[in-house]
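pasting for ref
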Amino acid sequence: MKLISHGAALEVTGSCHELQVNGKRILLDCGLFQGKRSEAAKKNVSFDFDPSADIDAVVLTHAHMDHAGRMPLLYKRGYRGPIYCTYATKDLADVMLQDSGYIHEKDEEYFCKHLAASMMKCEGPLYTQQDAIDCAEIFVGRNYGSWFDVCDGVRAKFFEAGHVLGAAMVILEIEDNEDNSKKTLCFTGDLGRDTLPIIRDPESIPPVDSLICESTYGNRKHEGIENAKHELCDAINRTAERGGKILIPAFSLERTQEIIYDLHVLWDAGEIPQIPIFVDSPLASRVTKIFMKHPECYDQDMYEQFLSKSRNPFQFSGVRYTESVEESKELNQNPGPMIIMAGSGMCEGGRIRHHLRYNIEDPRCTVVAVGYMAENTLGRRIIDPEVKAVRIFDKTYHKKAEVVSINAYSAHADMTDLDEFITSVSGLKNLFLVHGEEENIQSLSKRMSENNANLKITMPERGIAYNV
């Protein structure tokens, strides 16, 4: 059996790992590359395989775009096999991928308009909203904790990853005819943290021979999750006193719902002023509705605090979900204080860029970063204290607004979580470290080597085949 990483190899985005066994080829995730636009676009447009002929099955860990975002392109290029995922991920991917297709279409319109004068040729969007709609027909939902056949000689089971709604680690049991052995492999996807609000904690997994593990925070510790709410509270109160706006770039999936949950708790407790709260993301509105459809993913605190009392955790008197472009534009004409939460989480697209353009030079305002910002993204430049000005829509703006980074909100395991998870896996012989910047992966690799001298550790390079 061989493993080939086509993405998230010594980098964070573009998760896509291929298993070759018994003449079959299985993809674990197929996500979008994000970061520097020209480099990401070049990676996103091509595959190292023929989707129509080479791939037999796909297993998807969760609906974030860096894991699921190229599924419509697989379909567009001819793939018609199954995409296995949890039922919550199936529902989320439907709306997330349609939104992604819409963004690709709009980006293409923008670039073609600006390329017209240069006589450069427009290549067309990576995929369209209709491609995403068509792609939904090959998604196949499966329950947590139940075995299902992926292809001949390979079966799989989903375990709770504790990362976002519907996220799963996948265990694969494989009859390898090449060496007449039975092998077990786990792919973490994105591993979450204990005590996150809303969803259940990551599950323990049974013994496996090989582990493909994410390494996003392989050399960093998070603050306690309870600190996140306090930091958010402090930032809101400071900014409200100045009469400014609190801008929160947040992923439409999970982070938006976590922030609304905390705002609801703070509002009920009277710990923040009763200022308007706007969720300026049609996608976040649709995703939030899907959250209410999947109580099987909730943790006990969610039940006790809200559902047992028939209260909607994502709707209260202070919050308003905006839909139209006109409503969104109106927010930039109205005075603060107010809270505006909008996508995208890394500020690379969506409505947040418009709000940043209008408010980033206003010292009364605050930008609150509540998630990971990949290298070469607008979000990373905003939170970098060494960067004094940023370009938004081809114009330079000086950073005069306060910038607050709340790392405690991260839904990724930190270095302590990763160490504990990896060392808890019984029977482990092979460890593949993926989905991390090189410095983080090397740090995690060093610690694991010191912990277990007999463990074979590999940091896969993109496109290289490794024996498993």
